[in-house]
Amino acid sequence: MTAHTGHRPLVAFTSLAIAGAGLVAASACFELLYGLVSGRMVAAGAALLAAGLLVSLGHLGRKRRAGLAVRGAGRSALSNEALAAGLALAAAALAAGLELGGAHSRVVTAIAGAVNAAFLVSIGLVYDIRGQRTWRGFSAATPLTGGLAFGAVAVQTTAGTGDVYFIALVFIAADVLVFSRRWRDVAGIAFTAATLANPWSIHRSPLLGARFFLLDVIPYLLLAVSPATLAIGSAAAGLIVDRFGFYALAIQHTTEHDIAGVEAQIAAIDGAREQ
Amino acid sequence: MPALRTIRTVCPRNCYCTCGMLVTLDEGNRIVAIEGDPDNPATGGHVCLKGLSYARRQTYPGRLLTPLRRNASGSGFEPIGWDDALREITERLTRVRSEHGPEAVLYYEGSGSHGALGGLSMAFWRQFGGCTTTFGDLCWPAGLEATRLTYGGNFHNDPALTVQSRLILLWGHNPAETNVHQWRLILDAQALGARVIVIDPRQTDSTDAADLHLRPRPGTDAALALGLAREIVAAGLEDSAFLDAHADGVEEYRQRVAEFPLERVASITGLDAQEVRALAQEYAGTKPALLIAGFGLQRHSRAGQTMRAVALLPALTGNVGVAGGGWQYANLASHCLRPLTLPPEPAASRAIPVSQVARHLETLDGPPIRAAWIERGNPAAQNPASHRLRDALARLNLVVVVDQFMTPTASLAHFVLPAKTLFEEEDLVTAYWHPYLQWRAKVLPPAGDVRPESDIWRALCERFGYDTSYFPDDRESFLQALLPEGCAFTIDDLKARPIDPSGSGGVAFADRRFPTASGKVAFASDEAAALWGVDRVPDYAPLREGAESPARGRFPLQFLSCKTRDRIHSQFGNLDWVRAVERPHVLEIHPDDARARGITDGERAAVWNERGRIELAARVTPGIRPGVVHVLEGWCHEGDPDVNALTAEGITDMNHGATFYECLVEVARV
Amino acid sequence: MSRAGFLLDLHRCVGCGACVLACRIENGRVDAAAWRRVLPLNLRRHPAGPTYFLSVACHHCEDPACLNGCPSGAYEKRPDGIVVHREDLCLGCRYCEMTCPFGAPQYDEAKGVMSKCHLCAHRVDAGRLPACVAACPTEALRYVAGARGLETHSSDAADRVPGFADPAGCRPGLRFVTPRGARRAELFRSLEEALKR
Q: C5-61+119-196 in CATH: which number?
């Protein structure tokens, strides 16, 4: 039942959506803290978010019913996410429109930032599923921290001048803290028949490590360096590896795994007896 | 609401259960439900997974729907019409007969489909001038004869009485797989407090649930039975009253069993002496006790004497003719139909033992076999020495196979004719576990261009200009005439519910009248000695290819190829629904034997002897006795191992049975 | 609310798969994935443990993960406890496939929607047993229904056995009668104890 290992539309959707929402939320922070206004960043964020939502339709078996997805708001984490996605896109589009049109409003941008941050939280909550060993706990926080880290790197590096804005360091540090807990949680899962039923399990360290370096370490080192594309490119790649790894390393509880665990236990009893 | 109709019928497979079935069709003649017939008291409201799989099998992709002829290059088949097929077969049969005589044609019918109309083939062959058929049986004949010699006939208690047993001893029997309705009744008895004991070299689904499991070496059961008898007699636990009144030859028997003290039995069987004694005391001390012997117990050359030894234990302990007790092997109570009216048997009629078809195809002369007609069977995979059989068939001038699917046997044919399914022709079906005669309804018209075998034979008779009056114009009235003389029921009654034609139901031999020569249970039998040249009393002799055989120097492992519930022999095993739930295709080997050969679990292993060789994945499991390896029989999907490459064309000591389980092999890593 | 569900007698189940085939026939699942599966435990027959079989499908949980997570509300829990899937509301997002810890919802590639065991609600409504239950030749699989339903069976039937856990706290409607028979009951008991340690 590891049906979603590397499910491409979901990887693409969440990469784009987290990048976009992170960009909007980070832009809002930079503006509020440093007065750095970037209509183009917000617009880019909105565009990424829109692209992500379009791609997410590709995952649905019945695309035309996508509108039904909000019916469960309040009960279903996925429904909440769908609603938040719509609100996030609307707010980001409004903010971008105002900024690019010259009718810039700090309030609107702040709200857009908050709504997009909330959207990032709602993504995490979707995957906070009991019975999914590698998706619980700190893993649920990485869409927020990863998105903000990506957004901060993007805004920072396009702001030019070589000055590193403190908020960027804060967001990267937050992501480092949260992700290192996820890394520890995942790497701590013993290799059993159940975990090895997912062929990606043995590659978990390279995957998690690559994500860490690409999204946190390399951009941090390149923050003050031009050209911006290297840092942004690394962060973007890190986000994609993060999402790919997220699905690839999924270990869903199944009764089959339960049984495999018990059989391993029986063999251990057997082995112990023979000695 | 779509109109649904439900039709009562019966499963005609070679299986104990012979389940009553209810089939529900919609207006489009699609099967929407298959259920057990609650009016069959033995099978109740259930069938098994195979019965359910008929919903898939009926229209399965790959089901043969037209006649096929081998194409010119010989690499495959092309569809042809019935006229062409029958015309060419007629020409070629005629040619074989004129060149070699009618006995040059082997007519082989297997056990693939039961029904009274199956005998109509002889209406053709006898008018053809005769042919070569087979005698004996691949499965159960030694046990049948042993039971007949001992008790006078093959009858046992109604299965429903199982729940009254206080002890159920399963010997060489795995009803959890091969007789699931009996297993349900055994579980019911166990829930009421009965003890379930299984004697089997393997662990099976039946042994999993048993209260006690003994694992003797295969082929040593006669020694075990005689040893148990000795313990029973020594402990004074035999039923003297019954023996005095209803048994013959007990004194001779006592002298024989005295030759089997515990130490000797332990040494021969590999069992612990104390567990043998404990079993004897428990079996003899618990009343009523039911002893059910499986067919696996007799698949070797000492079959008849082994079965006699085991079959006498219920008589020894007073468990015969009582509810909840008995000797249970096969129940022929429903075998009451009158024989078909057939042409007189011609002089040129010859028969070969069914367990030695390969050898006879290779060597028979005066005349040699030059053609074969095979229906309701898959001998190229299922018979002993299957590879030699296959090669021999491939050398014949004409092979005609009638089957539902392209089996290994069909793939060797020159003509393959599409066979009907159980839903496509009515018939009367007897059973061999419960006493019920059942009506097999014509539920559906034959699919595609399929014709039932009875129509094929009629058509051939027409082409040859033979008398076709032997064939039914109306099957119902034809079959009505086969019901026993003076019976109180009609086909219409049978359509409404299964019927026990003996009307006796209940307890076999309750009146203690045994149809033997002496009217008593035969502990010693002149007839056995006269007919089969065996000892008057049961005895033990080591198998030629068994635990004590010198051949073990080269081939140290005994090879078993047992049955599974996933198939009836090689039927059902091609269906996707069944393959999704079936047991794995593996060689079961004990950890000690595996370790000695450097074989690890899951590795590919070769199994071979001087007759052949197969390869498959090994499963290292303590569930098989050391010194014994096992592969399930009946696989014939592409790439599957064919166990009968290894088996020998032996014959049982009585009644011309086969010796599938008398087989020594060696195993090694590939 | 009533609790409907299944009672599986581990002593009587022989792992034959008749329940799987009966479900296929009843619900027209010829080529598609079956709604029920039969899983062997210790088929290798290690002597240190019992051998038995788990027939699992949808267990109509008290707190169903599928229903809780479904964004479009395509799952409903009937008053009798049966959890049914509404194909007409299904987006095919496959979230329930991720959240169900028992593998019940199946995705149909061709139709783009999910499906799962509905306890043969159409049969139950007509006073008949679910197809799997009716077909079980050893009567190992039973249907439990009614006002007190599974609660009645909780006292003499386990809700958890080695090989079947409820990691998500969904409270599945599946109860087990543990194996009997002198040998297997003992092996089962000692396995349970070993797992507790």
A: 3.30.70.20
